[in-house]
Amino acid sequence: MIKNYFKIAWRNITKHKAFSLINILSLSIGLSAALIIGMMVYHDFSFDKFHSKGNQIYRAVSDLEMNDDKFGNPGTPIPLGQTMAADYPEVEMKAHLLLYSTDKVISTSTQKVSTINDRAIFVEPSYFELFKYKWLAGNPNTALDKPNKTVLVQSRAAYFFPNLTPNEIIGQVLDYGEMQTSVSGIVADFEQNTDIIFNEFISYDTVLQTKMKGTATQDFGSINSSSQLFVRLRSDADIASVNERLRALAISNWDEDSIEFGLKSYYRLQPLSDIHFNTKYGIYDNSRSQADKSVLTALGLVALFLLSLGVVNFVNLNTANATKRAKEIGVRKTLGSSRSQLIKQFLGETFILTLLATVVSIGVTFWLLNVFSDFIVGEVDLSLLSEPLVAIGVIVLILIVALAAGFYPSLVLSSFKPNRVLKGDIKTHSGGSSIRKGLTVFQFAVAHVFIIATLLVGKQIHYVMNRDMGFAKENRLFVNAPFGEKDFSKKETFQTLVKRIPGVEAVSLGSQPPASTSGHINFMEMTHNNKGYKTEIRMLYGDTDYLEMYNIPLIAGRQLRNDTIMEFVLNEKAVSTLGFQNPEDILNKQVMYEDTLVSVVGVVKDFNQRTLKDAIMPLAFTGDLARSGWSHFGMLHIKTSKNIDLPATISQIENAYLNVFPNNTFEINFIDQTIANFYSEDEQLAKLLNWATGLAILISCLGLLGLVIHTTERRTKEIGIRKVLGASLLQINTLLCKEFLILVAIAFVIAAPIAYYGINNWLQDFSYKTSISFWVFLVSGCAMILFALLVISAKTLRAANANPVNSLRSE
Question: Which of 194, 320, 528, 808 could form a disulfide with 710 if both were Cys (CB 3.0 to 4.6 A apart)?
Fold first, then answer.
């Protein structure tokens, strides 16, 4: 009997080719979206699930408040670990670590040089008890028991010592410039997905030999993101109670300066499983963007809507097409088929269609993975379908889609009364036109929301990319000097060499560009008119050519006298925050900065220092205040002429760089590209919306086409009679289109406020934003009506042009 069900199902699918094709295409698009996003979710939720007692491991983090601003920091004070180990009985184990990076690491025996060294840590021996690694060489009990010892992961060891076995690597020496260490252990790389990506583990006491020794000896009054703490709690620990005591501990260590400036810090424990998703505290891999549960939720909704549109098409077309199968159902019931047997048969047809759609969706998925390769991490590919959980999820998805798409149509089809349908009385059993209309409205409402969102997101991105940020960014480049380079004369030599290159108009030594995601933030205060003013201040360092290089105009006062003098040039925001309305009034006044009185000699016009999501901060521009120790001038900023041979100029800059800094990696950055990177996630969102919009319109229009085909076939005789009675082509087409266009218009009325609410919420992330223009909604509505009209007219015009003699004869 089951074989017979499938045979009849296949016959019906091939008999109604147009409807079957529309259903398969619609479902395959929705299924492919569900497959891709499902694999993304599975991939992101697979991180760090393999650690022994992983649900008991936490990272201690800090929540900071500065007046109305709230932000997170993955670092905690150095003494917190010892305090928790001594005073918190819930703590089974703790491991403190210090993130370490240097510009160069050299193997003294093989002379292999690494210039990418951002995954090293100074760490306590207990780290390897907290996180279980497979040891390939060395003794885990003594590997980090003394200074100047290093444990390497296998891949890192293979890089430095390519021809040695793990045991032969033990005792080899690595030179970090400011220290040397001997390799005391080799551990295997983690094979599963993880955010614990460190590859060099240096014994903790070695930090006292480096520039980070100050960080390693700080007290509770300092929070540094490089200082991080992992703990493992007992299985019965009350995490809420621990967090309450940590909060109280933080409050008890507030100092007077912090209270005066309104700076508050609180400690809490972050579950290991939360590290991958919580953008507030970040991850250790700076080469990729962090997963975000809100983004995954949004992607899930997109997939759900696209899949729902496909299911809606199936329901609409099958219920609309029910009358064509009425006599078949009547005969089957007369011959003894029960309603349950008919429901099983129709569900079987749906299941076959869903299986065909799944096969097609595999191809669509492969294509979409390539389209969104810059949005989807490389580990997400079709090979994930072989994972047991993913495979089970796909099977469950197919069954749910088949049931959702086939259940209602099967009820409608199986409800026909044989004594009525065999007499031709089937008008009252046509499948519920009101439900079909409601589902059609739902389809086009979703499409409208996508169109409006796409237009407004694109409008905002165009706005932020083209808005004047207050400084020049065209033809501006910058090059980083090697990290930790202490010989300032080399930077000056590099500056001199670049200045001589044809096509280079100006050069300037300084810190970061005017707008960047990094920067030095400190505090400043002053008293005037018997009132005290305090503010958080963003520091920008540069030589006397820096402001002119970026066309940042002075509106009062003068430039710095030289590159190292202790003078400040403030921006307008800093001037107003310190209580002055007129920039001229603050000139030659002194502000307190790091317990030193500093004169204000100039004021520059405000410019955006970060993305346009952020408001302009108070800013102080000054010279290289710490040149005698750790120079702030780590970048050479370059202005080039227009219409030059840029690749040739960059090649000459590279030659100058390698001449001064041999054995280092040259990297040049463009200011305009740096600013564009601020909005890479928003551009990815825009790209996603573009595709989601296109797919939503495609699915909706395919469904509309199917309904139009059904309507024109059902009204063939009516169209013929109207033509015989003198109706024009326009009148007939208007008659057939009117019903569907009304549904599209109703969908727009429903979608417009939903889209406005969603986009308005998204725009709140931007301090500078475009307006939500009326024309966007008008264009969306007109575009959707135009799409619908083209789809409807493609069929209705053909029906209206048909010879009425043939139409009437067919009836």
Answer: 320
